[in-house]
Amino acid sequence: GAVVSQHPSWVICKSGTSVKIECRSLDFQATTMFWYRQFPKQSLMLMATSNEGSKATYEQGVEKDKFLINHASLTLSTLTVTSAHPEDSSFYICSAMGQGSYSNQPQHFGDGTRLSIL
Amino acid sequence: EDKVVQSPLSLVVHEGDTVTLNCSYEVTNFRSLLWYKQEKKAPTFLFMLTSSGIEKKSGRLSSILDKKELFSILNITATQTGDSAIYLCAVRAGAGSYQLTFGKGTKLSVIP
What average pLDDT score do residues A56-62 get? Predict the structure, then answer.
């Protein structure tokens, strides 16, 4: 159980392109999803917290107009990197947490999306 | 600011060795501590610890939390090459918070 699917797994595109990444919880309903970014040899840095049906909460320093997050259903959240530039190249990972008391729910991670902007 | 520190940052051992990975934390309103294993892709969940002194065990892996001294350890016995990965420690803290603060990870390399 607790499978999170992230798609695509790898994207290479030209500078200026907008890229959409999907995160789906396959066998549970995720009231809360998280988007992380990971640079080489670094740990995961939380970008934003996404709650179904409401606006995402962005961490300090993360541009909300640059990284658009939509959590339209209990099983799907999307991250759109708008007008991507080479400095946006990174490994983006989503995680999802099911319903219930947050104190006994681990986050389950997708396989990540490697984004390379040329 | 919440802080999670893992040590060592990297470790090389031979197959069959036992290893202990450390995670210390300084957070406000601790809720739980989680261990993840990250190989080439995203982290996979290992353990979640909320109470002191209660060991969690899964096969050759075990973990325990000390809330008084603010640390946790992850033990791996009889290591195998498949245990090679980055092990991440994360802490959930704060009233009503779902967010995790991650340490930088310990890179474990198990050589035959």
Answer: 91
